[in-house]
Design goal:
The chain has about 425 residues and is of the alpha+beta class. The protein has two domains: about 30-160; about 195-414, Pyrimidine nucleoside phosphorylase-like, C-terminal domain (Aldehyde Oxidoreductase, domain 3, Alpha-Beta Complex). The protein has 14 helices and eight strands. The protein has a five-stranded mixed β-sheet with strand order 1-5-3-8-7. The protein is flat and about 85 Å long.
């Protein structure tokens, strides 16, 4: 019996391991608490460092004025957040959360709060009747200037988030970044392909013990090491971006040895959440771009120009995918033995996601029908010949739809 191609020698030290084992960043709450704690310490200690002198009453008035002036900035920041998120949901797609998740939003909130805390703490730390250190007002002025700079960055980011061109560039850029992380090797048409070989007997099925949620990340490095210690193979049945349901088996542990990997260890290596994220989900960028194009084609918006523009971003993502080795679902440990089998989309599935819905909704608009033919034709010329068949079939379908809907346009085509 054929055992299929050998698993890729992708150990935890390879780029794929780093991309799939990305640890959680420091939580936003902890980040903001760090800003606040640093401001409180600075506001307590700085008045004790005597460098120059200013009247205490004037310094106190200035600090209280700064504290009062920072609070409206927080209100404006949250107003921007709500307005931009609402705009993105209504005009683009509810899955577009670039502004909400942008570091500028959460750094600005933490820093504005820190300026308020510093001003209040420093004002109450000044000694009555004594001359205040000149470091206090100068530090306060510096913090205000930095806050103004952050506010400008926040405004610029908000304005960019409601512009179609900037949004498409951001989504495509994030998509390309994830593609290069998950698929680090270039496509080699001569590499052996075929179905994966059979797995050892099933030792245990891993059921999701928590309420249903979206699979966001898998700690591959930790899981591969645990599977190597137990001499087993962990097979995922749900891919990143899909829903794991409570009580349902989302993975299985296979092995012949006496040791067994605990289902709890597999669950601990999985991160879930209420929605999809870009971290390990190469298909999310395509899903968002297609959603933007479909919404632009809806009767509510009727904006075929935006849909045609979105096709350019879809083309950029697919060209990058076509140039990468997508056969990385089987991951080997340090000794070269298969330890993990993931669920990753195939090239056919990526192409279907990118074009099939638009081939149904798009041909009724001349701009979109024309652009679909152009994009598919450019892709067929640019990608490796081994991956042209799905593109060629959709090109023929798009050309036929254009000829039926717009005969004069079709006759003018070369």
């Amino acid at each position: 019996m054929s055992t299929g191609p050998a698993p890729r020698q992708v150990t935890v030290k390879r780029p794929l391991g780093r991309a799939l084992a990305r640890r959680r960043q420091v939580s936003l709450s902890l980040l903001q608490l760090t800003y606040i704690a640093a401001a409180a310490i600075l506001g307590t200690l700085l008045p004790r460092v005597q460098v120059g002198s200013v009247p205490t009453d004037k310094a106190s008035q200035m600090l209280f004025a700064i504290a009062a002036g920072v609070l409206p900035l927080l209100g404006i920041m949250y107003s921007l957040l709500f307005l931009v998120v609402q705009w993105s949901h209504s005009m683009f797609t509810p899955r577009l959360n670039l502004f909400r998740d942008h570091p500028a939003v959460w750094h600005a909130f933490g820093f504005f709060t820190a300026v308020f805390v510093f001003a209040i703490t420093a004002a109450f730390s000044l000694e009555d009747g004594a001359a205040a250190s000149a470091l206090v007002p100068w530090t306060a002025i510096l913090l205000v200037l930095v806050a103004v700079g952050l506010f400008r960055i926040l405004l610029t980011t908000a304005f960019s988030s409601i512009q179609l061109g900037a949004t498409l560039r951001a989504v495509a850029g994030r998509g390309v970044q994830v593609i290069e992380g998950v698929y680090p090797q270039p496509f080699d048409p001569t590499a052996p392909t075929g179905p994966a070989g059979p797995l050892p007997p099933t030792r245990a099925e891993v059921h999701w013990p928590h309420p249903g949620a979206t699979l966001q990340r898998i700690d591959v490095a930790r899981l591969v090491q645990a599977a190597a210690r137990a001499d087993c193979v962990v097979e995922f049945r749900v891919g990143v971006g899909q829903v794991v349901r409570q009580g349902r088996a989302f993975a299985a542990v296979h092995g012949n040895g006496p040791a067994a990997l605990s289902p709890t260890e597999v669950v601990d290596c999985v991160v879930t959440g209420p929605e999809r994220t870009f971290d390990q989900d190469p298909a999310l960028a395509l899903r968002i771009l297609v959603d933007i194009a479909l919404r632009a084609l809806s009767p509510a918006l009727n904006d075929p120009t935006s849909a045609a523009q979105t096709l350019d971003a879809i083309q950029a993502c697919l060209e990058r995918l076509a140039a990468r080795d997508l056969d990385v679902a089987r991951i080997a440990g340090a000794q070269g033995h298969e330890r993990l089998r993931l669920v990753l989309p195939s090239w056919q599935e990526y192409v279907s996601l990118a074009f099939d819905e638009l081939l149904v909704a798009g041909p009724s608009a001349l701009q979109v029908a024309r652009r679909l033919v152009a994009v598919l034709g450019e892709l067929a010329d640019a990608i490796p010949s081994a991956r042209r068949a799905p593109i060629q079939r959709r090109l023929e379908r798009a050309t036929s739809a254009l000829q039926q809907a717009f005969p004069d346009e079709a006759r003018a085509m070369p």
